[in-house]
Amino acid sequence: MDQITHALVDSLAAHNISPHIITFLVSMIPLLELRGGILIAGTVLKQPFILTYITAVLGNMLPIPFILLFIEKIFQWMKKIKYIEKFPHWCEAKALKHSDQIKKYGYFGLYLFVAIPLPGTGAWTGSLLAVLLGLKRGKSLLCIFLGVLTAGLIMSLVSYGALNFILDMFK
Q1: How much is the pTM?
Q2: Which of 29, 37, 118, 160 is positioned for an S-S bond with 56, CB 3.0–4.6 A?
């Protein structure tokens, strides 16, 4: 967890904000998303698994329908405004770098893209890619949701030590 994220969590916790609200908010932030929310809740805030998992999934999924529905219009608008017109182009180029998997495997590729918690992947980028590649919004939303559920399980295994427990059994 980087220093900025740690400072944000410390600041929220210092103001007596519920750990579940912190998990929800962190899970909504692009780049951090559910991966960051579960990691923070499991390792820093010491929250129980099931409520953390549900909270992080809900936080990560909240912005996704809005991205699928409105990102094209928002980017069109931003491209007309001096000083920020380069930002949507940058976002689109960054997302399209990851498009090969989705172009090759379609909706299953979108699911995998969101499900495997690696840097640069996740629900936000997956949603943007779905729009840029002209995928159907309803199917994309389902694939992204399933991907978020899977990524949440993977991150929970890491954050809550279950993966270490399983690996230790085979030593």
Answers
A1: 0.86
A2: 37
